[in-house]
Amino acid sequence: MSKSHKFDESIRNPFFSLVGRRILLIMILLSGFFTVFTTLLQTYWDYDEAFDNVESRHYEIENIHADLLASSLWIYDLSSVQERLDGLVNLPHVNYLSVRSENYLFEAGSPVEVSKLVNEYPLEYDDPDTGRTQRIGTIYVESDTNTIYAHLIQQFFLTLLLNAIKTLLVCYLILLVFHHTVSQRVFHVAQFLRGYNPLDPGQKKLELPRKKYIMEKEDELDWLAAETNKITDNMSTLYRNIMLERERLSDFTHVSSDWLWETDADLKLTFCSDPMRHALGIDAKHFPYLHDVLTTIGCNQFIGNLQRQQDFAMCEEIIQIDEDTRYFVFQALAHYGVDGFRGFRGTGIDITELKKTQFELETLNQNLEVTVDERTRELQESMERLKAAQDQLVESEKLAALGSLVAGVAHEVNTPLGIAVTASSVVKEITTTLNEAFKEQTLTSTQFASLMKQVDDSISMLEHNLNRASHLIRDFKQTAVDQVSEAHTEFDVKRTIDALIASLHPETRKIPVEPIVKGEEKIIMHSLPGVLTQVISNLVMNSINHAFDDTDTPQILIEFERQDEHLYLCYQDNGCGVPKELHQRIFEPFYTSKRGRGGSGLGLNLVFNLVKQKLQGELQFESTPGEGAKFMFLIPLNLANITSQQQREDDQHTIGKQ
Which of 204, 212, 236, 563 has the smallest set of CB atoms within 10 Å of its CB? Predict the structure, then answer.
């Protein structure tokens, strides 16, 4: 029987279902095993019950009827004894009875020859006159066990037969239910898939048959049918998309101006695009060997690459087409299979127009070299200004950490200068590459566009970093030289700080944060108010730029009070804080946590120098990560007295040296 015929029969006949038959066989084996087991167990229970009944009957004769027989014998009522025996032998499970008493023998029933159960009990009489018990004979009982065994065997096979019939009937009904609920529906799914055609736009969806009373409203096979419909719909969509892509690729191949070609293992053309076919005069019905075509037009380098049977690219050839000299770049992929080399698939790109851009490229190279020279001179001038500013800083000795400042300047300026030097090197390398490609006539439009983009990016990087270096040098000069001299004046501390906070409002509202100023009224200082406001201003800007990135309710508190001849000033915020290992570095010049995002690292360094050198004060710093930063200052109230005293000490020191 053919496979197709078996498939069709499986839909109609449940016994042709391989799964159904296997399930039926398993059910019969399991049911038969349990049926035999339970029947044996029931037979064992019946066996025990039957022999218990026999023992019970013997016990009844011993304890009830034996006394009556003994009384009849004692009074010599022999006819009564025989009558009682004849009556007892009719009891169930009693086949033979006999009573022996001296010279008397009474019998009832037929003796059992084989397979019998035997018991013999004494006959005793209790004399009411004397109170003595006398043995007057025995009673002998026989029961046939063959009858019990035959009944048990008959009952065993009858039960087994009934259970077997019931099992077969149940299994057949289950097979029918399984056939209608599972097998037929699975066969419908398979039949649907066998006839599925992704090209048929009118393909019907899979619908499974349904039987009332034996099927759920929606079961697993319905889910399978729904998923099958989804998969077939997706396959149809995918197949249509593939056909669409195939048509699109075919259209692109025919309208493309580039040459597309393919060969077999013998280098015979199996496909070529229309532009290539028209340019080389190739017959669309009879493709020639590619070697013969290339020999005709003189593409020797192309022929050599084909003979190596390996991938190749950037194979430039000059071809005469209709008395017009054209430049082409060929590239191809070599395909291999289990049987070795299978052929090439490649393209030919017309780069004639790119040749016309070479003169423009040379002009661009010259302009690029001039630009690099100008930027280099500006870089040298910036380095000279940096050197002059550094020398002036060393001579003035205004900063507390000169070595750290010079290192910071060198590191900070070195980064943009190094990037600028790298960018200029990249520009030179690209210029060299362009010139070499131009001379070797291997320059493609893609390569030219990529290199020109790199040139533009390098020039932008060069200009940005030179400007960055120039700005850093300008900031360094501003920090390194002496602060603008101010006349010593008297001023009210609270009024001066309040005015400063008001002027910083455009910056503080960006966070937003509203600095709180707390302090004694009418504290008068004779010092440099501009320096003091510059210190507080730098601290506020430092908090705005660095402290409140992860703070929901930013706060700034400025407190001050008079302590003898000094002003105690405390500035604190509730920002992110500073790790303990960085406490010694925050006042270093050019150290910042936002390098590359606008931070110069000069704000706190300037605070340190202004407090130490201009205001002749002391500074302390405390901070815990997540709890903000705290700056504490102790500044003389009368800076003129401190300055005069230092001047006298310097004069005395000078006189002492003389």
Answer: 212
